[in-house]
Specification:
single chain; 760 residues; six-stranded mixed β-sheet; five-stranded mixed β-sheet; EC 2.4.1.-; transmembrane; glycoprotein; transferase; Hexosyltransferase
Amino acid sequence: MRLGAVLSALRPALPLLLGLSLGCSLSLLRASWSHGAAEERCLAPGPPAPPARGAPPEAAEGRPGPGHEDFRPQIVPYYRDPNKPYKKVLRTRYIQTELGFHERLFVAVLTSKATLNTLAVAVNKTVAHHFPRLLYFTGLRSAKVPHGMVLVAHGDERPIWLMYETMNYIHQHFGSDYDWFYIMQDDTYAQAEQVKALVTHLSINQDVYLGRAEEFIGGDEQARYCHGGFGYLLSRSLLLKLHPHLDSCRNEILSVRPDEWLGRCIIDFLGVTCVSQLQGQHYHTYELAKNTEPEKEEEEAFQAALAVHPVSDMTLMYRLHKQFSRIQLDRVYQEIQDLQMQIRNLTALTPAGEAGVTWPVGINAPFLPKSRFEVISWDYFTEQHLFSCPDGSPKCELSGASKADVSEIIESAVEQLNRLYQPLLRFSKRQLLNGYRRFDPTRGMEYTLDLLLEAATQKGHSHVLAKRVSLVRPLSKVEIIPMPYVTEATRVQLVLPLTVQDLDFVANFLDMFAMNTLDTHDNALLTLLFIYHPYDAQRVGQVDVFAGVKAMVGELEKRYAEVKIPWISVKTEVPSQVKLMDIVSKKHPVDTLFFLASVWTEINMEFLNRCRMNTISNWQVFFPVHFQEFNPTLVYRGEQTASSNTDFLRDGHFDRHSFAEACFYNSDYMTARTKLAADILDRDEVLESMEVFDVFLHYSGLHLFRAVEPGLVQKYTLRSCNPRLSEELYHRCVLSNLEGLASRSHLAMALFEQEQANST
């Protein structure tokens, strides 16, 4: 009995004891195996054997020799000489400059005064937008340079001198920035995309002189120069080695042709001859005969050519570009068909089988919503009207880009039907019965069309039928748009308009401004704009409605001795945003970066930096969409309060009806304002129906960047809407107040609780 009681007491700890015993046993076995594997070599007693011949002493002692130093990590401690003054390290503007990266391709076009406005313009219109950097070099320039062309004139029309000066100029200005240099004449048509693809497959470690190799007249049979009419490619290493010898070549080499002169210079001083094939890549060319019809050229050599020469006139240049574009387009369509066939074949082997093939093949599947709130709605349209308008109206006229989009998609649908059913049937459009479209961010714009078509047979019979077709305009390749360089060091001038209704919120604004800008020494200034009603302006000597605000400003200036906060007083019944900005604009320099704020705005450094980065002089203005908090009475209903320590988005929404906040440069505003003044003449009442956003939208020609701004948060308040403003501005203010109350779920819950309270 006693033994049974002991066992019953130890039973819960039995698994632990067994585990410990098993672990100790396995560790002892492992230790014995390790000693057996590391058995040392039996050596006879005596002095140690000398190392082998040539072996370093470290190897004899079991340490790695000098050949293994690359594998030893070395920690280099930071040390700064205290006797030397500290010097701030200046970083480069772009990281690729600091890392030593180079641009890929530079293109130089040799032209002349006679052909600058003809062939050079044709080159610029056909291939210039495909090359990252293209310059035109000429001896003498004409009085007027064609638009959109960067021209370098050397002052002498002699061909050899032009080539010499061009090579010097390229080395001096671009020799350290590019890996490849492509030189062509203005009577050459080059396939830009093919040339760009060629340089991506070549190694930059070699001296490359690539083009159409030609023999020198009466010269060495082994030496070749690259024919200038078909263009040629030089590597950066070759250009750097060639530059010191250019002066000697100019003085010692006599030639009539500039391409022969350059080829002889490269051969004599560098020993590099022109080649048409390098590293498995071929430089294909095609020589045009007289009276050639590019549309009828079907030779394989023509279709594979990277460069075509000679091009006698502008029309021939455009015809060549059209033909090569058609050839390239056919290749792309064929490649798409091949890829679609491969996708179908591979999809049949997947678990989903053929059902897993999406339409169109190779395009992302449609977006699948996870809830009813994620459903993408369709917009209904006809050939004349759109039933989902940007301004919220139920019906508007189809015009502009939308009309062109609908016309193009209908033509494409009829064309695709004819391609499928010809020659048995021929379709022609009679009418668009119904049209639907939606934008799917995962694939592109989707269309569903109900078309009334007339189908004609080969025998002349016709029949009218309705047919539904579906089309997709897929998202194309994403491109990086070049933007001017901006910096975060720009000073921001805040402009705060204040009315009598805003007095309760000024204290919070000034506190946030002091905490987030003055305490952090951010490069930002503040200007207050006091808007007096005419009645208050008459009594300002006895009772100043803004006296409390001026006292708070005085306290801030005492606390921060280096800070001055000026104010401007304005008397008006209708505080037009444009008229107020006219007054402020005249009192600041033209290079001032304005941030037009509202009294409910909570200023922070994060947003000010985005204001600086998103506003570019003479290029772009920034209109942020602030985050508006909901009414806490409706959202929390006394059950919980908003978290005061959270610094991200609280319960609210982005107020798309408000355009009160804006970032722009004074010079851009003055330019747009001048155009507006010329348009409205002396009708100042028009300004009362406009905001600064309207001025930039209609009269600036700049990019208007409007995006949600999570760093710009405003607390809930019921704003007073001035009925003296225009109907559109008043309606927009009312909508902002209504949508800022609460979300639909919060409003539904409030109504439900109210109905329950009324029923009891």
